[in-house]
Amino acid sequence: RKEVEQDPGPFNVPEGATVAFNCTYSNSASQSFFWYRQDCRKEPKLLMSVYSSGNEDGRFTAQLNRASQYISLLIRDSKLSDSATYLCVADTGRRALTFGSGTRLQVQP
Amino acid sequence: EPEVTQTPSHQVTQMGQEVILRCVPISNHLYFYWYRQILGQKVEFLVSFYNNEISEKSEIFDDQFSVERPDGSNFTLKIRSTKLEDSAMYFCASSVAGRTDTQYFGPGTRLTVL
Lengths: 109, 114
What we know:
A: mainly beta, 5-stranded antiparallel β-sheet, 54% strand, B: mainly beta
């Protein structure tokens, strides 16, 4: 079983749409969770950390459900510039990030 | 804004050759990492480094790999005898002490083994 599992997509959405990505993780020892964004052939960039209480950063909202080992990312009012691959990431506290394979988002005009 | 830098951006080598990939972490960061991403696949952790020694390493990081901090600024990854399957993008990252949510990634070195 993959440690961090994501739907690869692609998700093709029009500008202004709301889109949600889901992710599950298998290692119950995972302590910290993140969403990273990766543009084609570029480095991963931290989008936001994910907390049990949920957190919001502008148009982005992340949620963590430890009981279900499930993480989500919601993007509201999608922009063309949101087109990228979104990586769900877990850390067991060993300072080694475990990445999912990513979900590709394409926002269309 | 400070950033992690990596050189070269692209390295082409023959199978069996040694390569050294270089990274300059952010100056006040204390933890350093190498990750790799084979084309079309996920980012995979290789090794973390702190206080001049390896903190963690994955099963990918076998005896063919080594890391070094030869001076106060550079952090290197050496692959002793490259194989075709080592072809990948190699990302260096750094973070402040004990906080993984501040791992900043460099732009990567694309390694092509022929």
